[in-house]
Design brief:
Length: 355
């Protein structure tokens, strides 16, 4: 933590869009550097990771680019220009002002360089913790909102995501007790724990395995298929059909309400991305080309939230199978996202992948 923000350096290599999306999933954005002290702090994170061998290379993405206007360097989360005096952070001969070098990384010396946005880099995410969004209540270093209307789990996920949050994760008895103390005592509430219906068992929607449980008696059932989880009036957990109507508990890191998100015509919005289904059968290469012509890419799935949303969204179409942007073209048996990024969240069908 530095001043009013928390930072995390991710070692996985991603292009700039993959890094932006990953930070948004974490409830933050690529690091925005407003002072020399903050630059030194981010530099120190990078130095420790490089010297300990945690990351490859000696640089990482920060949230600065001139993608919208050449030579107009702005922060991706606020669209603000770089503060006066921070121009000293550019490495010698930088920015190079060459075509295609529209994004910025920071190296172990604390120097900035403009490079191609398509390149793979580690990245530094920043989460502001100064305040909770409107309608949220602070607890520890998190913010909580208790929905006052019944909805299925998919609508609950969307409601939470609209303010940059997610269905609550509960890691210990303190968090469980807090939710019990604040919620409506007459209603069950959704939390972000699902049973994927496979041998992996219950996991949080962000992909984490759960180490703390507070199941009611005879819960969970030994064979339930894909189900979701509610917390009852006593704070005990029960499995529930994801289509059932319950109140919800949203949780997020303290930060301001995100800017409104607009999708192109024909696309649907969920969290920080836009989606469109093309039901026309095609091969993987042609599907990639169709997406690229629209300035998009074949979908990649970073967590259970996104997977569950797409599962529900695709029920609206007549097709049954859809391409993902996931291949092992680079190295047989090693699947990775085509736009950059290591495969972390997995939801393979039984006996998959077949190598």
């Amino acid at each position: 933590r530095h001043v009013s923000s928390c930072y995390k350096l991710f070692s996985v290599l991603a292009d700039i869009n993959g890094a932006i999306d990953s930070c948004a999933i974490e409830g933050g954005s690529l690091a925005k550097i407003d002072s020399l002290a903050e630059n030194e702090f981010v530099q120190s994170l990078l130095q420790v990771s490089v010297h300990s061998g945690i990351i490859l290379g000696d640089s990482a993405w920060i949230g600065l680019s001139d993608m919208n206007e050449q030579d107009s360097w702005r922060w991706t989360d606020t669209d603000e220009r770089v503060k006066y005096g921070l121009s000293l952070m550019w490495a010698s001969g930088q920015p190079g002002a060459r075509n295609g070098e529209n994004c910025v990384d920071i190296n172990v010396k604390g120097e900035w360089s403009d490079v191609g946005c398509h390149l793979g880099r580690p990245y530094v995410c920043e989460v502001h913790i100064e305040q909770c969004p409107q309608g949220y209540e602070p607890h520890m270093d998190q913010c909580y909102k208790f929905a006052s209307s019944g909805m299925n789990v998919y609508d609950a996920m969307t409601d939470c995501a609209s303010s940059g949050a997610h269905l609550a994760t509960v890691h210990n008895v303190i968090e469980n007790s807090y939710i019990v103390s604040k919620r409506d005592s007459k209603k069950d509430v959704w939390i972000g724990l699902i049973d994927s219906g496979d041998k992996m068992g219950f996991k949080w929607l962000n992909g984490e395995s759960s180490t703390y449980f507070n199941w009611a008696a005879d819960e969970p059932p030994t064979e339930s298929g894909q189900t979701c989880t509610v917390m009852d009036t006593m704070g005990e957990w029960k499995h529930e059909s994801c289509e059932a109507k319950n109140f919800a508990v949203c949780q997020g890191s303290g930060k301001s309400i995100p800017k409104p998100f607009r999708c192109p015509v024909g696309y649907n919005h969920f969290v920080n991305a836009c989606y469109r289904v093309d039901p026309t059968p095609t091969n993987h290469t042609e599907a990639e080309k169709i997406c690229e012509d629209e300035g998009a890419n074949l979908v990649y799935i970073y967590n259970g939230y996104e997977n569950m949303y797409l599962q529900e969204y695709l029920k609206l179409t007549t097709a049954t199978e859809f391409w993902l942007g996931l291949t092992d073209f680079t190295l047989k048996g090693m699947f990775s996202w085509t736009r950059g990024g290591k495969l972390k969240y997995k939801n393979w069908a039984e006996a998959e992948p077949r190598l």
